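ZP: hey, is the iron/sulfur cluster complex queued? I don't see it on the tracker
AM: it wasn't, my bad. submitting now with these inputs:
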Amino acid sequence: MAATNITEEQWAVSAGYIAKIKEDNANFAVKHGRPRLAHTETYGCQQNVNDTERIRGMLSEAGFGFTDSAEKADLVIYNTCAVRENAEQKVFGRLGILKHIKESHPNMMVAVCGCMVQQEHICEKIKKVHDHVDLIFGTHALWRMPELLYRTMTEKGVVVDITDSDGVIAEEIPILRDKTEKAWVSVMYGCNNFCTYCIVPHVRGRERSRKPEDILNEVKSLAAAGTTEISLLGQNVNSYGKDLGIGVDFADLLKMVNDIEGVRRIRFMTSHPKDLSDKLIYTIRDCDKVCKQLHLPFQAGSDKVLRDMNRHYDKKRYLEIIDKVKSEIPGIALTTDVIVGFPTETNEDFRETLDVLRKVRFDSIFSFIYSRREGTPAAKLEPVLSDEEIHKNFNELLELQNEICKEKNLEYVGKIEEVLVDGESKTDRNLMTGRTDSGKIVNFEAPENSVGEYVKVEITRARQWSLEGKMV
Ligand code: SAH
Ligand code: SF4
Ligand code: F3S
């Protein structure tokens, strides 16, 4: 069943509250000689980054200015992630610090939103332990933020909205993006896969795809404003369109975005191995703007563990897909996600994960130690390995992959790559940084005004996590 978009009337209510806040903010600015300032912090995945851009879009329309410092802010918003325990601990840590800041800024408003607070037990904990939090809203309430914020500004006590509407789509929310040259564009929301370790389906609701015309219009207007790199986002992009029932799948969508004038690079994430069709592989191969890079999480190498994770493929099938991808698209960069220490994983099972790394030779991996998530099926399982054994395995995995990364990077030395200049390098202030078509980070000398430009760079040196080069 296709997802429902919110109605015009529903958005009109939110827009009405944006106008009311704007009036209040105008009075504030007259009284204080400065605009009311908001500070946002984002945890978690690109989906959350994109949601924060919507939050900032609504705040900007409501007359807020922005500040990088929580101390200077009149409104602090944490957009949170629940995928692993350490993501949640970070936010609790920040809230603790904010308590002290608020003591000397009593008028400061504090809001916590996103995946973490979509869980009832976390919401309760925040209300109990952090009574300086004024507003809590979950992922499904994003489009209602203007009303919730207005209530926070005018009512006493904490305002809470974590209703689970299983998700709607709100196309009307304005988006304020940081960069012009690159943009994230969500193509779908939610997830239906219920991997047994994962909280995402529980906090993001069911899969729902945006209509192709809404996505294409967004990309067209981005391209018209000078954006050349588009990253299409979804928890499982290759099941895009299944719920629409109009015969458009993710490969079709890629082709349509590929046809948009002004777009030069298209990236997308994340793909699930169970849905990776040959049609999609051919589309990546044939579309000139689609970057030759694929992020395909395999999570674990053991068939038993994959079954316990509810992943719907085995090691053999995963390696078959990779072989097909490599033979159709030679030189494609491959990345993945891996979990170490799933409760039923034994040391022998873990060897299978190492074997996949050796066989595929990923360009880079994102590896995580399993984190127990309350409410997921895996949370009921007793781990067979001790924490020590799991950490030992995790380190062995890192060591192996570090070697592979270095070797893969060495293959670039001497090549000339097209790089989109991103900005100043994080590691060396005298250098600029950018990414190749395959997604590799390259640091090199370039004029500061080259940000947003595509330049040719000869790769001169391979480092562990990045490349160095010189402009040619
Ligand atoms: N939808 C995407 C990404 C989801 S979250 C996908 O399926 O690939 C990103 C990664 O976090 C996952 O791929 C997984 O490797 C990791 N992850 C999810 N839940 C986790 C947990 N409970 N403990 C450790 N890692 C987890
Ligand atoms: Fe989580 Fe699995 Fe969905 Fe990815 S596909 S978000 S890992 S449930
Ligand atoms: Fe985290 Fe939510 Fe993304 S749980 S990984 S921010 S979908």
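AM: back. The pocket of FE3-S4 cluster (ligand 3) is lined by residues 44-45, 47-48, 81-83, 115, 199-200, 203-204 (CB under 6 Å).
ZP: great, adding it to the tracker
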